[in-house]
Structures are given as structure tokens and as C-alpha cells.
Amino acid sequence: MGKGIPSYTDEEFVAAIRRGDDRALAQLYRLHLPMVSHYVLQNSGTEDEAKDVYQEGVMVFYEKVREGSLELSCQIKTYLYAVCRRLWLKRLAEKTRFGGRLDDHEPYLETGAEADLDLAEERDKRFATMSEALERVGEPCRSLLEGFYLLDKSMQQLTAEFGYTNADNAKNQKYKCLVRLKKLFFAHYKGEESF
Amino acid sequence: MKTEADYYALFEAYRSGELAASQRADLEHRLAADPNFAQLFADFTELTSTLHGYGERLATRRKLHAIQADLDAEQAVRLEEGETLETGIPTMPQVYISPVERKLRAFWGAHRATAMVAASVAVMAVFATLLGLEWWRAAQQRPSLYGYTVLRREVERIKQTQKAMNRAINQIDGTKPETELNPGKFSGTGFALTADGYLVTSYHVIQGADSLLIESRDRQRYRAEPVFTDVAHDLAILRIKDRKFSGFGRLPYSFKRGTADLGEKVFTLGYPREDVVFGEGSLSARSGFEGDTAFYQISIPVNPGNSGGPLLDDRGNLIGIISGRQMDMQSAAFATKSSYLMRLVDSLSAVGTAQPYNMPRTNLMAGTSRRQQIRKLQDYVFVVKVYE
Asked: What sections of the protein cross the membrane (chain B) (predicted)?
């Protein structure tokens, strides 16, 4: 599709995404979607499942790049394929009774995708706990913390939004909320399945 | 005493580098000295970094969703515009699949493997059964060699057609149908050896028999028992044990002790059907199946039921006993040589059994026409019925 969209090499992609270039991300996303979508459709998946899996796979890649801890020993395409393949097989195994059909004799294991996926899984668990803790911390704490940490709003903005008399009040409130969140988070995270 | 919240304020300031140098050094010192304090700091760090990471994750997810939404929108537009403009690759025509078919496809997709396994098991079971049955049947039919078929008749198999035929005949005749009689399981042919009740037939006819019944042409029935059998030469000697039996009368044929010549005109009478059947041919070889010298090869068409029938030459000498035929050869029948029968009778006489064997010495058939020969012979040829 020669529509004046800049084409990147793999290194340029990684560099651009690390800088936070959303256009590069979009470009990358477009580039490899057909491959993964084809793979999932070939292996008894639907279009929507393909998109889901692909987004998850891109997420793993993206987070690794942003952290700066990506060690790419192959093409991005191969890496993404390996990650998405693994994710899809896992989903299939959960979906069907025939869980034992993951044929892993192919050379996708050397892409490092496996180890990255394990890390990503660990992170997913942490985020899930965090989301749960945020659910339970209660209003106004939840909105306050989400506003500050998740939506990157400034303290001034939040002070105005929540109607605090000054920023220090809002800050104090935020710290108290943080302490509460901490208790909830660690109680669940360390204690694992105590929900 | 500071609360945890106050410490958090301190930590955040430290993290963002807002602390003055002295406070900063103080904090770092305390972190190094107090493990509890250090733990507090570590928890704070993990909590905030997780929060940040979570925020970033949500942002990324939104971004990806937006990209996907863009793509979907683009695709929709492209589909509306008509596919040729943009890419030159025509989008595949969408086939409409009914919900039922979709369900069936999903079912097939999910259970394909199971169905395959079941199908192959079924196929294997069928073949195993068929092969097993075939093998079992083959094992049942012991005495038949490859290509060699003994000619005893399985009565059960032809009973049905026989009945139908009888019925048809009776209808034509208009006579009363005969009373049903147990026809026995197998049947063959036998002929008189002596005037006082010894008969000869093939061993394989009476093989496995529980009781034997001899039936003459005029429907006279006698019960018989085997006296002696010779498996190697396929011979059996029977004796009629009925008290009412008074003897056959004088036998019209004599037994040849030597071997007959090649090309000799020979004939036989037998019971491949319910009626006596005449068969004629010549002596084709002086050895039998696979070169067995105890047998002749003859060119008479024989059928199951002919076994045990007499084989006579032109002058009315008995030269053999019909035994079997070769499947893959045109009208190649085999008959045991009469010399072997003679040798058997001689050895039995020498041992001295209850009754002596009074073999016929004169031949009443020599020099008469074939029709007369047969008329004389047919009273001495019998059906041998075997009950198991």
C-alpha cells in the first residue's frame, strides 16, 4: 500500500515505538495483522478471536519495547507470530477438551517468546490484582488514584475536579488512599488466591 | 510519630527529586539503616510502579483498539466503494452460511478427531470379523487341499432347491407329495464290493459320520457301518448291518488288479443329484493330483456327490473309485486305483475278519453294449448318506 506511509525496518520500528511513536505502532499493527488473523482462522478461530489474540501479542511486544528489555533474536514478524501462536494455542487448550495437541517441535521456541510470555503472564496477574484492589478501595479513592496514576492528570486538575480546597488537601487524601490500596493490593497479591 | 501516609508523601517527593539535599541524605541513610523502613519504601515503589504500569497497559489497549477500529472502518469503506479501486485484489465473495450449517461445521470441527477414530475402529472391526469368519470356515474344511476338491455333497445347501423342484414336479404329476425324510448332512456314492453286504466308498464321504444310510435306486434303505478306512488312498469299506438285508445278488462286474491303460474308455455312475447320473470319458493319466500314483486322472465331468462312485472300463472291469477333482483344470477328476482297493481287501482277508470277502470273479458285463452295462450296474450303485 504505497500511500506515503513511511516504511520502517525492524530496528526503526523498535526505536520509534520506544520513543512512543504511535504512528509506528499503528503501522506495525497493520503490517502483521493479516498473518496472525490467517493463522487463527486456519486453526478454528473466529475473526474476533484473531483480533483479541493479536492485540494481546502486540501488547506483549509493546511493553517489552517500552521497558527496553526486548532482546530480539529474530524478525519482529517471527516474534509476533510465535507469541500469538502460543497465546492462541493456550486459548484453544482452554476451550476444547483436546488439550494435549500443542505441537511444539517447531523452531518458534528460540525466539525468546516463551520466556517473555511467562513474564507477561506474571504481569497480567499483578495487573488483575491491582484492578481488583482498585475496585475495592472505594470512591473517592478510586477515582482519585485512577485520575492521578492511570489517566496522568495533574494534582491541580484533580483538586478542581473533586472540589478540594487546595492541592495539599488533595495530596494528603491521595496518600491515605494509597495506603489503603497498598493494604488491599498486598493482601491479595502476596496471599495469592484469597479473593 | 509520622503516619504511613506522611511517609508516602516523603517518598513521592524523594522519587520526583523535590527533596532538599540534606533531607535526601537523611532519608537514604535511614533506608540503609532500618530494614522495616526500607520494606515500606520497597512496597511503595512496587505499588506505584504497578499503578503506572497498569495505567500504561490501559492506555496501550485503548491505542490498539483505536488502531483496530480504524482498520475496521477502512475496510468497511473499501467494501462499500467496491474493492477494485484500492488494492486490485478482489475481496472474496462472502458465502452465506445458514445457522444450521454453521452449527454442523462447528460440531464437525470439534469432533472430527473422535469421528475419525470411531470410523477407523469400525472399519477394522468389520474386516477383522470378515477375515476371522473366512479363516474359521477355512479351518472347518480340513481335507481339501489347494486346488483339490473332494466331491462329497453338502445336502443341506441344496435341500431348498431340491424341495422346490420336488414341488414343481409334483404339481406336474399331480401326485401326493412324499413324506419328508431327513436327507442327511452329506451324501456320496457307494457300490457293492461283495454280494453279501460289503460296500466301497471314499473315505472323505463318511469322514466324521455318526451314522450311515445306504439308499438304493428303488428307495430301499439300509443302515451301514464302516468296517475299514484307508485315509491315504481315500477308501472306506462299509457293511450293511440290517437284519432284513438278504444280499445284493450276483455282482455283474469284476475288479481289476492291474493298472488300466491310458486312453481307455471309462464311465461311472453316481448320485450328484437325487437321481443316478451317468458320466463317460477316458483315462487321461496314470497319476493323480500332484503326481500321486495311487490315483488315475480321468476326463469325466464329476460333481459333488460323485465321490465313491465306481469307475469301470469298456469291458465292465472296475478300475477305480471316484475321489475328487482339480479346481483350476478343465474336467480333471481323480479316482483311486482299484489295485489299492484289492490290496486292502487282501490284507483284510489275511487278518481274518468275521465274514470273508467273497469277491466276484466273473464279469457279466463284458461284450455287452453300454446301455445294457448300465442297466446291470445301476442296481449295485447306492447313495451313501452321512449323518453327523
From this structure: 113-136
What percentage of chain B carries pLDDT values higher than 90?
13
Q: Domain A10-96+104-116 maps to which CATH number in 1.10.1740, 2.30.30, 1.25.40, 1.10.287? A: 1.10.1740
> Is the distance from CB of A28 to CB of A58 less than 8 angstroms?
yes
A127/B54 Cβ within 8 A: yes
**HSE-CB for B92 with a 13 A CA cutoff:** 3
Query: Domain boundary residue among B49, B74, B99?
Result: B74
Residue B182 forms part of a structural domain: yes
B189 by DSSP, 3-state: which? strand
**A98 neighbourhood in chain B, CB within 8 Å:** 113
The pLDDT tens digits of the residues spanning A72-126 come to 777 788 888 888 888 888 888 777 655 555 554 455 556 667 777 777 888 888 8
| Contact status of A183 with chain B (Cβ, < 8 Å) | no
Task: Give yes or no for A171 touching B (CB within 8 A).
Answer: yes
pTM: 0.44
Contact A114, A102 (CB under 8 A): no
- Does A126 contact chain B (CB < 8 Å)? yes
Contact A127 B50 (CB under 8 A): yes
Summarised one tens digit per residue, pLDDT across range B186-206 is: 888 999 988 888 899 998 888
The Cα of A164 is separated from the nearest Cα of chain B by a number of Å equal to 17
Identify which of B277, B262, B264, B253 has the alpha carbon closest to the alpha carbon of residue B368: B253
| Cβ separation B57–A59 shorter than 8 A | yes
From A73-77, B61-65, B222-226, the region with the lowest mean pLDDT: A73-77
Phi/psi of residue A83, nearest 5 degrees: -65, -50
Q: Is the ipTM of this complex over 0.85?
A: no
Q: Which of A55, A63, A96 shows the shortest C-beta gap to B68? A: A55
| Predicted local confidence at residue B170, as pLDDT | 59
Cα dihedral angle (A194, B61, A59, A55), rounded to 10 degrees? 110
Nearest-by-CA chain B residue for A179: B5
pLDDT in tens, A23-67: 888 888 888 888 888 888 887 778 888 888 888 888 888 888 887
The percent of residues in chain B predicted with pLDDT above 70, rounded, is: 85
Distance CA B298, CA B267 (A): 9
Q: Which domain holds residue B45?
A: 4-74
The number of CA neighbours under 13 Å toward the Cβ of B381 is 30
State pLDDT tens for residues B262-307.
Answer: 898 999 999 888 888 898 999 998 888 878 888 899 998 888 888 8
Inter-residue contact B227 to B212 (CB < 8 Å): no
- How many whole angstroms separate alpha carbon B201 and alpha carbon B383? 10
Distance CA B351, CA B348 (A): 5
